[in-house]
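Side project, low priority. Logging it here so it doesn't get lost.
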Amino acid sequence: MVRPPTPSTRGILAFACLLVAMLWARDSLGQDTANEQYVAAGIYETGLTAALPEDAVCPEIASGFADAFNRSGRPRGAYAQWALHAGTDFALSDGTPIVAIADGKVVARGSDEPGSEPGNFVTIEHPHLPGAISSNYVHLSAFNVDKGQSVKQGQVIGFVGRTGNGVTFSHLHLNIYGRQVVRVGKGRLRYRHDFLQVLSRDMTPIDPVKKRMQKVTVAYMDQYGRVHPANAKVIWPFVCERSTE
């Protein structure tokens, strides 16, 4: 025969249930707060995808904006400071030339140092683009520009590498900065934009719930130095091989 719980047992069970509820509420609140912080920092899925050109071969995106997992499927929060990807990755071999996505001025150039998370990087300010954004090219193997230098769209500014703390493969990590600085977790982060939104030329704020669900036509520079379409203000950060046929 099963004995009914004694008053002391009922008290223990009630306390245990209360503790579980408190822990669940704490975790839920923490997750909600984290989500709010990421949204405030601009890091959330936009719904945008790249429509690569049919007449040229362009390097593809290896890891997209706001991805929660890396290329191997491992959750980013398990090894990285940020649980969501704050930029766009292009996996290419060491030494692949990287080009400026738009006209601008080099406002920062950092060198790889022991324990440095970004490694070698170049930051270009684009005051003529909507939002006065900056593009930040990370994990470079070498530089091709100096701080204070003006650059033209399509100009080689550096080369793909794997510099930086914990970097496991050669790639370009491209950040698009806004002006605002936001707290995320225990750190502070420059506001980020999805590169594909900048490429779309529509910087209207995207609802993090509804998203935009749009294929963005990729503008690019070919191996002959021509931009397609010719009036594009922002291009792919690598030269694309256009068919001569």
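Brief comment: The radius of gyration is 23 Å.
Revisit when time allows.
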